[in-house]
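input
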Amino acid sequence: MALDPTTILILSTALAAAAGLYLAVEWTSVREKSLLFWSAGFAVITVGCVLALARSAGFLLLGIWFANGLLIAAHGLFLAGVAWFTRTRLSRGWYLIAVLWLAMLLLPNQAWWSKVMLCIQSLLIAGITLRASFLLRPHGVSLSVGAVQLRYVLLVHGLFYLAKAGSTLVLGGSVDLPAFRGLVIQISLVEGAMAIMLIALSMTGTERHRREERIEQLAARDPLTGLYNRRALDRRAPGLLALASPANPGALLLIDIDNFKQVNDLYGHAAGDKLLVALSDMMRDALPRSALAARLGGDEFLILLEGSSDDDVAALCDNLRDAFAQKAQEEFPTPNAVTLSVGGTLFEQPSSGLAALIERGDGALYASKREGRDRLKLMPAA
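output
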């Protein structure tokens, strides 16, 4: 089968429909909103291609510029997906593109104006696509292979449309959009089919990497509190422990909830879970970004701090104890106060291992319990 313009357009229709369907299926398992935007973009391209094919076969359903307007809308959806993926808020000015295009459709439909319309359409698509590529810059953070590939595919695609905008005015007779004739149109059809395939593959790789990252994060987190689990703590702690020095001492804290069983007995395990989550949220809010926080199991938690003095640790623990005791008393009053016992140890040199520090912290925690609970017992640096 010869690769004439109609055949290429049929191929583009099939590729776009397949890409839209595949990304929609991916969304059902990943639930990442960017996939919906991208899937909708390919669905819009499919509709536009069908309208163009119908026109070439003699069935004039809608004007040719409507189908080309759908191409702008599709790229707008691609940009929206990239913005969602990169957690970027787009300026409202981008939505004015649709208004501009609708206004242009009301202007005279003459031969010279068709070339201007094609030029402006190409510029709009180029601007949208290059903006999407720009959003995928690393910004100091390494990107997945799929995201990098998508960035450069969008960049090349945008630059192609930028060149196409100029060529439509310069090359004159080589543009015959209604009949799919002319050098510019035929090159555009080939580039469009390739772009659909490459963009779809890049989008799929981008989201697959994010899904793998999410699975890895879930494996490293306690499912109830969202804090690190013991396995993740063992992997991350050595890097923080290695930073310790006399000028930059570290601290390890073990936290245990006093009389926690009474909450479960009186109010049920859902109430106990609520308190565990509340304590985890308090820890996240109070700790510096460099700290590590983990749930070791049950009602026992661990905090690993960098650059902390005795006073820093005491202030942190006092704030946590006061806030938690107030929360527990307000929501789940018990015969004996539900409070926090904290045991910890400072260290001024890289530790031989996390287990040794936890052992020292355990000794301090038991001392805190013996001395009446609801207090901090801190071991000096060894």
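quick obs: Residues 295 and 301 are 4 Å apart (CA to CA).
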